[in-house]
């Protein structure tokens, strides 16, 4: 019996074409984004609320200083101090405590109870706002933790904000206590600078966290590969320089140095103010000599402005339109802040202008951080201008 010849395979015949098609599995999303993704939005809203409260706290603290109200409460009672005096006897008791400190004897010996209540409410409001911030942090952190909505890797960062907030309360009392004894009629300027400096650190951390939570981890990792290292480096230097200027501004506020020399660009008709080193020992002049402290603040302001122009010029080389726009905003705010500073000097630092100058520092600080973030995590835009 003849055998049936085998059929030749075609050269491009698919092997196993007669087999049933394999079951395909849809591609899965990135594991990075899958980790507690839903908590990023809630955490970001919570941080933005904290940011707004801290910004208001800085403004209220500045007004408390400008109205000479910071020493009206002479005790630190974190819990029981939340309640203000509720009757005449309680008000008289608080006023009696204030009468015992040097500020009353040397500056306000003619103050009556009605006038005391005005400065008391400023300081009480300042401390009460600090308690509100602490409560918002605690409730928000606890709520995210109980709902298991804390983004992966963010527990330590959120806890750090609370720890710094607690330290800020202790430093606030350390500052106030420096004006309650001896012949002091104000708080120590270097303690005021420490208190304000930590407030800006907290505000900066919150802003940075808000920026990061506004984008997915996957997107941040991809953007990090395109980071503009040199621009990030010089913007970091600008951030540190701006922080130094903020501290010098606090020294000026601490001794009311902005009200002593009201001419510009000279000081008392000369470049360097008279008797810049008259206090002994010499190192105290850098904290207590009104002429020298204001001179340092002015010179640092000029240098910061020049350095800001250098950083802005470097940002013009960035291929990212979003990054260039953010550094444009920094330069614009630098110009505005310098103009406000000059006006503050010329008018003798009235509280209405001085508080605008302080809020300008907040705006400049956040804009520098925002531009620095863009250098670290560039956001590429399409031809149409969309991300």
From TrEMBL:
<keyword id="KW-1133">Transmembrane helix</keyword>
<keyword id="KW-1003">Cell membrane</keyword>
<comment type="function">
    <text>Catalyzes the conversion of heme O to heme A by two successive hydroxylations of the methyl group at C8. The first hydroxylation forms heme I, the second hydroxylation results in an unstable dihydroxymethyl group, which spontaneously dehydrates, resulting in the formyl group of heme A.</text>
</comment>
<feature type="transmembrane region" description="Helical">
    <location>
        <begin position="158"/>
        <end position="176"/>
    </location>
</feature>
<keyword id="KW-0812">Transmembrane</keyword>
<dbReference type="InterPro" id="IPR023754">
    <property type="entry name" value="HemeA_Synthase_type2"/>
</dbReference>
<feature type="binding site" description="axial binding residue">
    <location>
        <position position="357"/>
    </location>
    <ligand>
        <name>heme</name>
    </ligand>
</feature>
<dbReference type="GO" id="GO:0006784">
    <property type="term" value="P:heme A biosynthetic process"/>
</dbReference>
<dbReference type="GO" id="GO:0120547">
    <property type="term" value="F:heme A synthase activity"/>
</dbReference>
<keyword id="KW-0350">Heme biosynthesis</keyword>
<dbReference type="InterPro" id="IPR054616">
    <property type="entry name" value="HemA_synt_rhodobact"/>
</dbReference>
<feature type="transmembrane region" description="Helical">
    <location>
        <begin position="129"/>
        <end position="146"/>
    </location>
</feature>
<protein>
    <recommendedName>
        <fullName>Heme A synthase</fullName>
        <ecNumber>1.17.99.9</ecNumber>
    </recommendedName>
</protein>
<dbReference type="Pfam" id="PF02628">
    <property type="entry name" value="COX15-CtaA"/>
</dbReference>
<comment type="similarity">
    <text>Belongs to the COX15/CtaA family. Type 2 subfamily.</text>
</comment>
<keyword id="KW-0479">Metal-binding</keyword>
<keyword id="KW-0408">Iron</keyword>
<feature type="transmembrane region" description="Helical">
    <location>
        <begin position="231"/>
        <end position="255"/>
    </location>
</feature>
<comment type="subunit">
    <text>Interacts with CtaB.</text>
</comment>
<comment type="pathway">
    <text>Porphyrin-containing compound metabolism; heme A biosynthesis; heme A from heme O: step 1/1.</text>
</comment>
<keyword id="KW-0472">Membrane</keyword>
<feature type="transmembrane region" description="Helical">
    <location>
        <begin position="295"/>
        <end position="313"/>
    </location>
</feature>
<dbReference type="InterPro" id="IPR003780">
    <property type="entry name" value="COX15/CtaA_fam"/>
</dbReference>
<dbReference type="GO" id="GO:0005886">
    <property type="term" value="C:plasma membrane"/>
</dbReference>
<feature type="transmembrane region" description="Helical">
    <location>
        <begin position="325"/>
        <end position="349"/>
    </location>
</feature>
<feature type="transmembrane region" description="Helical">
    <location>
        <begin position="188"/>
        <end position="211"/>
    </location>
</feature>
<feature type="binding site" description="axial binding residue">
    <location>
        <position position="297"/>
    </location>
    <ligand>
        <name>heme</name>
    </ligand>
</feature>
<feature type="transmembrane region" description="Helical">
    <location>
        <begin position="45"/>
        <end position="64"/>
    </location>
</feature>
<dbReference type="GO" id="GO:0046872">
    <property type="term" value="F:metal ion binding"/>
</dbReference>
<keyword id="KW-0560">Oxidoreductase</keyword>
<feature type="transmembrane region" description="Helical">
    <location>
        <begin position="355"/>
        <end position="375"/>
    </location>
</feature>
């Amino acid at each position: 019996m003849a055998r049936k010849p085998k059929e030749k395979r075609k050269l491009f015949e698919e092997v196993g074409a007669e087999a049933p098609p394999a079951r395909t599995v849809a591609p899965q999303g990135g594991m990075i984004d899958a980790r507690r993704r839903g908590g990023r939005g809630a955490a970001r809203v919570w941080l933005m609320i904290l940011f707004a409260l801290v910004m208001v706290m800085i403004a209220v603290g500045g007004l408390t200083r400008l109205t000479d109200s910071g020493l009206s409460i002479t005790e630190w009672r974190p819990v029981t101090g939340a309640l203000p005096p509720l009757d005449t006897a309680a008000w008289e008791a608080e006023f009696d405590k204030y009468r015992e400190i040097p500020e009353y004897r040397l500056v306000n010996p003619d103050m009556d109870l009605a006038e005391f209540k005005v400065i008391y409410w400023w300081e009480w409001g300042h401390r009460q706002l600090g308690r509100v911030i602490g409560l918002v942090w605690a409730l928000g952190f606890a709520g995210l933790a109980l709902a298991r909505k804390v983004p992966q890797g963010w527990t330590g960062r959120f806890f750090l904000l609370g720890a710094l907030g607690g330290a800020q309360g202790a430093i606030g009392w350390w500052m106030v206590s420096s004006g309650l004894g001896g012949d002091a009629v104000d708080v120590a300027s270097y303690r005021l600078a420490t208190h304000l400096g930590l407030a800006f650190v907290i505000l900066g951390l919150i802003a940075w966290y808000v920026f990061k939570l506004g984008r997915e981890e996957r997107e941040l990792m991809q953007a990090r590969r395109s980071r503009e290292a040199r621009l990030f480096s010089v913007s970091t230097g600008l951030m540190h320089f701006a922080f130094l200027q903020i501290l010098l501004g606090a020294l000026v506020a601490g001794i009311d140095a902005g009200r002593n020399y009201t001419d510009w660009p000279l000081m008392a008709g000369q470049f360097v103010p008279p008797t810049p080193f008259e206090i002994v020992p010499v190192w105290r002049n850098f904290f207590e000599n009104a002429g020298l402290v204001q001179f340092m603040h002015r010179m640092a302001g000029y240098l910061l402005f020049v350095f800001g122009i250098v950083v802005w010029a470097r940002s013009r080389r960035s291929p990212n339109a979003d990054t260039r726009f953010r550094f444009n905003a920094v330069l614009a705010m630098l110009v505005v802040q310098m103009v406000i500073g000059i006006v503050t000097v010329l008018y003798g630092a009235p509280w209405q202008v001085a508080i605008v100058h302080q809020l300008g520092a907040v705006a400049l600080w956040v804009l520098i951080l925002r531009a620095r973030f863009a250098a670290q995590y560039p956001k590429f835009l399409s031809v149409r201008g969309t991300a």
